[in-house]
Amino acid sequence: MKKCLMSLLFITCLLGAHTPVHAQVNQSKPLEEFYAEYGYKSLEEAVKEFEQQMKMKISLPKKLPSLSFTHVLARVNRLGGNENVELNVEYLNEHVPENHFKMDIRPAENKLFIHEKRIIEQVRLKTGGKGIFVKVPGFHVFIFETEHCQYRLSMDQRVSDHFYPDELVEIANTIDSE
Questions:
Q1: In angstroms, rounded to a whole number, what is the distance separating the alpha carbons of residues 117 and 50?
Q2: Which of these, 32, 53, 69, 134, could form a disulfide with 91 (CB 3.0-4.6 Å)?
């Protein structure tokens, strides 16, 4: 009888430990609030802050990907100090997460070094400069330079049936050289 009670108690404890707990789910924060926690603000504010800090004017593309976006947020990101600063711009769709276009801009003197084995293809831009497609898991990435800045354009690969990597080159060709 004692063994039977112990077994019953053990089984009861096991079942109690594996019973799912139904927690009340909080309504998620608006996208702007979530990104604001990481320093994101309006594109205009971030561009102004970046230009003032870096003492340079930057150009943004006149063309964007042919996808719909609900939000444009940006921040000035200080990566390891004031000498390594970049502007991060995110084009997002709150309802279609794969509609995600990123643009990162940094001064040319602090450009990223890209190892040759990561380069997929080199492309000539209309300005005569060159750009490169780079291997990055989950994203199509195109990197190019203007006279004063290095640009990194990234698009989520999940939209490959609606968006072609060549569009990144078209977008790059709409950025005026500073």
A1: 32
A2: 69
